[in-house]
Design a protein that fits this description.
This protein is of the alpha/beta class. Helices cover 46% and strands 15% of the residues. It contains 6 helices and 5 strands. Strand 3, helix 3 and strand 4 form a beta-alpha-beta unit. Helix 1 packs across helix 5, helix 2 packs parallel to helix 3 and helix 5 packs antiparallel against helix 6. The longest helix has 16 residues.
């Protein structure tokens, strides 16, 4: 039996976590979701090797430990090299995008403003994760989707 697909979202906005979780469940009820509200909780969640996520969505502005600090920690530790990270933020600035890629993020996604777009984005992500095809192509597909909206 194959291991369940798991997604971790670190975001201090409770509403955003709830929308993400509900939308994810509508895309694929078998995907395991874990939502945490700050970077410290994200690092703690990753310490359980048996429940490691296949992919992480990471907000930038969070209390305790912000997204940049979490990303630095993850990409500075070979233990987590195999977990792709998508920066998932309300920000859309070029500086933040450059920083995300410089620190090792797979993608930078400005949070979509509709459930329909979040659902379409998650359909792409889940399809790629399940087919073991998490690559920069995933980012290009998400960006194409968001540009067309």
């Amino acid at each position: 039996m194959s291991k369940a697909t798991k997604i971790l979202l670190a975001d201090d906005d409770r509403d955003d976590r709830e929308i993400f979780s509900d939308t994810l469940a509508s895309v694929d009820a078998n995907v395991v979701y874990e939502g945490v509200e700050d970077g410290g909780e994200a690092i703690e969640a990753l310490s359980d090797d048996a429940n490691r996520p296949n992919i992480i969505f990471l907000d930038i502005n969070m209390p305790v430990m912000n997204g940049w600090d979490v990303l630095r920690k993850l990409k500075g530790d070979s233990t987590y090299d195999d977990i792709p990270v998508i920066i998932y933020s309300t920000s859309s600035g070029e500086k933040e995008k450059r920083t995300a890629f410089d620190l090792g993020a797979l993608c930078f996604v400005t949070k979509p403003d509709s459930v329909k777009l979040i659902k379409a984005m998650l359909e792409i992500v889940i399809s790629k994760v399940k087919s073991n095809d998490v690559s920069p192509q995933l980012c290009r597909e998400i960006q194409r989707l968001l540009r067309q909206a």
